[in-house]
Specification:
The complex is a heterodimer of chains A (247) and B (191).
Chain A (H helix, E strand, L loop, with lengths): L7 H11 L10 H6 L4 H24 L9 H23 L1 H7 L1 H4 L5 H11 L4 H31 L1 E2 L2 E2 L14 H22 L2 E2 L8 E3 L3 H7 L9 E3 L9
Antiparallel strand pairs in A: 1-2, 3-4, 4-5
Helix pairs in contact in A: 1-8, 3-4, 3-5, 3-7, 3-8, 4-5, 4-7
Chain B lengths: L1 H13 L10 H6 L4 H28 L8 H23 L1 H8 L1 H6 L2 H12 L4 H31 L9 H16 L8
Helix pairs in contact in B: 1-8, 3-4, 3-7, 3-8, 4-5, 8-9
The chains are: A mainly alpha (247), B mainly alpha (191).
Chain lengths: 247, 191
Amino acid sequence: MSPRATTPGQDFFRGVWRENPVLIQLLGLCPALAVTNTVANSIAMGLATFFVLMGSSILVSTLKKLIPAEVRISAYILIIATFVTIADMVLAAVVPEIHKALGAFIALIVVNCMILGRQEAFASKRPVGRAILDAAGTGTGFMIALLMMGSFREILGNGSFLGIPLFGDAFEPWIIMILPAGGFFTLGFLLLGFAWWEERKKVPVHPRHWPHGVTVQVDPGEAAAVGGSGAGGVRARRSEPMSRKED
Amino acid sequence: MGELMLIFVSAMLVNNFTLVLFLGLCPFMGVSAKVGTALRMGGANIFVLTITSVVASFLNEYVLVYAPYLRLISFIVVIASLVQIVEMTIKKLSPALFRELGIFLPLITTNCAILGLAIFQTNRGYGFVEGLFFAVGAGAGLTLALVLMASIREQTELADVPAVARNMGLVLIVAGSLSLAFMGFAGLFTS
């Protein structure tokens, strides 16, 4: 991807969804699994990470000409650690209870590979404006992922959302969801869901004389052009017999 | 001595770094495909964790009492540089050991488990000896988790898994089951 090939919108939205740091790239899993047992913790963690990512992207992008290439990684880590220290102190002063609940995981934002990855891959090579957009997009994507996991785990594991009970007394909470194992299961099932969704997007076509439908790995737009007339030359793969035959 | 064993077993099993505290997930997901690699990664982890613990006790004792706000920055910088020095020394002194562990050392310097150990050790006020037991226990726990995961993944490679689960989804669900199993160790200490 050449530096000029993307618009500002793409800079922003790439990180939000298509290259979502947690759900697609599987970066920053440590906080995503550890602190998403309640929605409030997820929001605090998301905001703190957003702040650190934004601050360090701006600074790295501004200083990119001054940082020698040989020590750039150490320089990035120093910059990130500075912003994490700020975030840690601010959270301790403003929301002491949440700060206590998050514990060491605020400090561990330093080693979130997502943040270092954005500095190395984007902010260190691009102008400040685009670095801000990229950081905002990636930070938003991270917050969305954390919120999804946090809501899922708090609603099922505690029967509440942001501490407000949802189901009344008859609901037996799934304690497992707020335990560590629940974090793994939640992310695992989310990834399975996304993989299933991607699978579904591959359009099934039905060549004559084939017992079952096949899925071709092309875009829906191209598939419309190819039509149902067989998949000559296209990499085709047999799908499950139960695939959507009525299409 | 009893208390030291308690720290060791607690760090290794009850509060397993990977499966209960979610530290060091990157190597757990990344290099858990083969048992041999997992073992070497575990060895390198024990090594770096031990160095980290020594460094953190030293920094806490002599430097950070004067400037507590520099904790995070100094941990990161000192640990990363020290591991680099150790890596160069090993390369010079024992090329065989370097081939076994060397390639993993830079990978794990900025791993959450390393910084997490230093921070937990500080927060819990462990001294030098307690810190050492904590570090070796945590490293042994990481190795155990890595090797268990690698053995399971070697089996699922051969299994007929549905197409949607042929990515990290399956690995995470297996990790969840392992984490459930490790919760059983919480019953080790009743007091």
